[in-house]
Amino acid sequence: MSDFEVRLVSESAVLVVMGQTIDPQTNLRVHSAAKLLMEQGWPGVEEFVPGYATLLVYFDPLLWEGEVLATRIRKVLRELREISFWRPRKVVIPVRYGGVWGPDLDFVAEATGLSCDEVIRLHSQSEYVVFMMGFTPGFAYLGGMNLKLSVPRLETPRSQVPAGSVGIAGAQTGIYPIDSPGGWRIIGRTPLRLFDPQSERPFLLSPGDRVCFEALEGEAP
Amino acid sequence: MRLRILDVGSLSTIQDAGRYGFRRYGMPVSGPMDWFAFQVANRLVGNSPADAVIEFSPGGLTFTLDADGLIAVTGSVQVWVDQMPLPGWMAIRVRRRQEVRVMTAPYGCWGYLAVAGGILTPPVLGSRATFLRGRLGGMEGRPLEPGDCILCGEGGKNSQNRAGYRLMAESIPAYSQRVTVRVMPGPQYDWFEEARVETFFRTEFRVDEKSDRMGFRLIGTEVQPRARDLLSEGMLPGSIQVPPDGQPIVLMADSPTTGGYPKIATLIRADLPVFAQLRPGEGRVRFKVVTPAQARKAYLELLETIDFDWEEDHSLWMTA
After folding, report:
1. 8 Å CB contact of A133 and B256
2. Spelled out in words, what is the top-level CATH class assigned to the domain B178-289?
């Protein structure tokens, strides 16, 4: 793999920059790089945080000098030619669209010139990729939305968005894992728990996963 | 043994070394604001360096132990045991039911109270650190309140013998409300015009009142980045991001794992402790640049302090 850059950003972190755009190919390279670097099993190289087009690598400065690690990373990533080995998991997320579950569904329909049913159909038809996670524990930034559904964020964020809410912001869609403030347009809600610290699998989604939404039947109360 | 909170003056939480291993899922690390004072507190009472302690802030707190125990209080702190003033940065023997009052003064923001045996609240995702915004860890994910009864471990058999053990005076950080701290160039350093970078290093910033465990906002000359969209990417405590208003934010212990503002610099780990001790609304800070090698050296030197700079003082260890 060529066309990447490794920068020291702290005495305990290096940033691998793999592009400047939000696109599935760049993001796939990020997850592939994370997997490959994880597989090296280097002691003291602790965690990897994928961004849209970057990978932040945390390491223990007791065990590594940043420049030495950066050189090792460059060497390993240059050998990463094929990215097809990345086999993501697939997760289906049931969603109740509209009503109290999706207070902005009508707005999205109006702003896009579609009917509510068409919005639901387009949203639950695509396959998405967890480009990255952040903002709050378990919040997944999903790429792959039909661009017809793009709408701007709320001008004033809500102070409380319920856990499980499915929202749209620009060309992205995402799910709020915990009750939190938020500015995305909320079109539905999933009964699944995306974050449960007591569970054996605390996070439903991982960076790189494929996600599909499935519309649940039933009238909103 | 149990520690009973009688009174809490301002934000106090349970913190251990932090919640590692889940940053790729968006889980902040949390843990102590001043990692040096935190580690020394544990070391003083013979705990492992990552054990859970109480982090308190200027208003401090008052507590009792329901059995004889050994404590250490670090940071810029004052300590009273049954109204008798005692020094920080030293292992202190405390008898059952003695009333202990601690606060941060005169030049600090965070204090650490370690109890021999450590605090044993249930770990969440492998850590006892409180993450307030996520309402998890520590005491049910919330700040401590009067009446809380906190389970502690038993100190080792010989832990009482550690009373009087202390960090050498010259190794105690010189906390101040006006500091110069060292930074490395950040990942988007080159997004800032040269004149803006110069401004950044020439300005004395004030720490804004609206600062907390998540981040410290700095007020001073504006250092706007060139207008450009940054794609959200990973960041860490110490990252200094600049939103479009040009007022830098230094990310702290509860920092989100990712962010979309350009980062002009990264505060080095060795200087996070003195920076964290600046009080919101009061503290002033200047930045100077160092190389990655210097940043690492400074960190290793500070760690060495914790390993070697010890002495015993028997004039003060009898408190009761």
Report:
1. no
2. mainly beta
Read off the CATH number of the domain in which A170 is found.
Answer: 2.40.100.10
What residue has token string 């360096």?
Answer: B49
Residue B312 has pLDDT above 80, yes or no: no
Higher model confidence: residue A3 or residue A84? A3
Per residue in A189-199, pLDDT (tens digit) is 999 999 999 99
Closest Cα of chain A to B316: distance in Å? Answer: 35
Selection from A209, A213, A150 nearest residue A28 by Cα:
A209
Distance from CA of A138 to the nearest CA of B (A): 5
A50 interfaces chain B, CB cutoff of 8 Å: yes
Phi-psi region of B89 (alpha: psi -120 to 50; beta: other; left: phi over 0): left
pTM of the predicted protein model: 0.93
Same domain, A111 and A174: yes
Contacts A202 to B, Cβ<8 Å: 22, 25, 125
A59 and A103 belong to one structural domain: no
Distances (CA, A) of A114 to A101, B39, B268: 19, 58, 51
The domain segmentation of chain B, as residue ranges, is: 2-167, 178-289
Q: Which of A27, A177, A165 is nearest to A98 (CA)?
A: A165
Amino acid present at B115? V
Q: pLDDT tens digits, residue range B33-51? A: 999 999 999 999 999 999 9
Same domain, A72 and A99: no
* A50 inside domain: yes
pLDDT digits 0-9 by tens, B242-287: 998 899 999 999 999 999 899 999 999 999 999 999 999 999 999 9
Query: A54 with A125, same domain?
Result: no
Residue A100 sits in the same domain as residue A197: yes
A76 touches chain B (CB under 8 A): no
Q: In this complex, which of B23, B263, B292 lies closest to A49 when CB atoms are compared? A: B23
* Cα-based torsion angle of the residue sequence B138, B139, B142, B146 in order, rounded to the nearest 10 degrees: -130
Question: Is B227 a residue whose pLDDT tops 80?
Answer: no
Structural domain harbouring A177: 90-215
Nearest chain A Cα distance for residue B245, angstroms: 17
- Residue A44, Cβ neighbours under 10 Å: how many? 13
